[in-house]
Design brief:
This protein is an alpha/beta fold. The chain has helices at 21-34, 54-64, 82-96, 111-115, 124-140, 175-184, 195-211, 235-248, 252-255, 264-277, 291-308, and strands at 5-7, 10-11, 13-14, 38-41, 69-72, 75-76, 100-105, 144-146, 153-156, 168-172, 187-191, 220-229, 259-262, 281-286, 312-314. The chain has eleven helices and 15 strands. Strands 2, 3, 4, 5, 6, 7, 10, 11, 12, 13 and 14 form an eleven-stranded parallel beta sheet that branches. Strands 1-15 form a two-stranded antiparallel ribbon. The chain has a two-stranded antiparallel sheet with strand order 8-9. Strand 3, helix 1 and strand 4 (38-41) form a beta-alpha-beta unit. It is globular, with a radius of gyration of 19 Å.
Amino acid sequence: MSDPTVHRAQLGLVLPPAVPAGQLWPAVEAAEEGGIGSIWVTDRTISDMPWLETMTVLGGLAARTSRVMIGTSVLAIARRNPVLTAHAFCTAQYLSGGRVVAGIGLGGARPAEYEMAGVPLSRRGRITDEYIAVMRRLWAEGSIDHASDEYSCAGLQLCPQPETPIPIWIGGQTPAAYRRAGRLGDGWLAAFVPPEGYAGVWGQVCDHALAAGREPSEITPAVYVLAAIGRREGEAEALLDPFMRSVFGAPLDALSFACLYGTPDRWVDMIGRFGDAGAQHVLPVLVTDDLPRDVDLVLSEVLPQLASRPAGLVGV
């Protein structure tokens, strides 16, 4: 039996795929001022709905915020050049004053997104691992040489390098993602995991960390959830169900275990249960037709209840 640890999850905000600038930046600034712990951007290129480019928005977040942690949740680096990607993260880190988290993952099984980059799906895992190593070297070392079947470079150096290290949080919901998080991650971003299943998969990440000679306490546990909020019953469901059908090809009922939706009271309950299970950050991607309105609802009716909720005991 492990020692009990007082735990309360911090609430972040994952931005919707595309929001007009006149709504986006006021909502982002209100979220930071109102106490949201972090703001994130999700990566996708080929979509049947508007979807903004991840690193462009991350740069905008660096400019429009001053204190809050910002990051990607998650960036599919295997379909990008690792040097250009490392440079983009360096730039966002420089402009933000050291507030960036590089959330890295495979981005789901979307063959077209890898085909356009000339990357077979069968190699995306090993490429991801290798690119993580290349980026970390570029962020920390002088001129680097790297040679492998996946990528080669010689005499490359990035300047300026990050004054504050850029943590890498590994996202995913497969055994391979758990292994990657345990071996390589500074954090772990679970996805499609309900509160009652979180401790079990976090335990797998910890086991892989120990097997790699790492200390699990050095890995930050977090969870990414699909979300919508409404003041009355049914409002959030009406927003989230069409999104789930469009993006995942399934109704909300089929994937409700992976979602955070409903009234503010329901949000508080589920976020609290994730915290009780060990998550330090809960990151909802907010599906909405009015981002400023729904951010205001989170700030006014969810955050105050979370602040007053007794922390759970983990590991008892």
